[in-house]
Amino acid sequence: MIRRTDGFSLIEVLMAVFIIGVGVVPVMMLFLTGTKTVEKGGVILEASIISQNILDLARSDSFIWKREQQTINIPDPKFPEFKIPEFFKKKYQASATLTVEEAPEHTILGTGAKETNLLQLTVILHWLESGIPKEYRMLAYRANTNSVNLKTSAKF
């Protein structure tokens, strides 16, 4: 009886598939996890850029000193300058709020009097990521140094 040795036996093929599977599956899982992490980082970066753009517009003299303690829901047709990019708004059902208020718990140095020339601006961006609500918050302060009522401390 002549035995042919031209191919692979079933056991050899199964062993090869097992060895490749043990090596390839973890690498693929790492690749998929890395891709998701990069995508999440991109969303957070975009949220920070959107929030920073809103804050930059809100800090302008023409806007800020005409407003007293106000909350603006974005988008708002009364304030078209504050925008969330369409792709972000549609993809993540995003919205934002901008709050302008006197800076809480800030006093004039050396006097303890409430600081009325310092405003706190807060932007909160909300979106849904895979059905999970997410939020990015950015805060800035703006002082009105052009006020005729500017009060400062005599002690520095």
Can you offer a commentary on this structure?
The structure is a single chain. By secondary structure, the chain is an alpha+beta fold. It has one domain (10-143). Helices cover 38% and strands 24% of the residues. It has three helices and four strands. The chain has helices spanning 10-58, 61-64, 86-92, and strands at 70-74, 95-102, 118-129, 132-143. Strands 1-2-3-4 form a four-stranded antiparallel β-sheet, with helices on one face. Strand 3 (118-129) and strand 4 (132-143) form a beta hairpin. It is elongated. The protein starts with 9 loop residues before the first helix and ends in a 13-residue tail after the last strand. The model has no long low-confidence stretch (mean pLDDT 82).
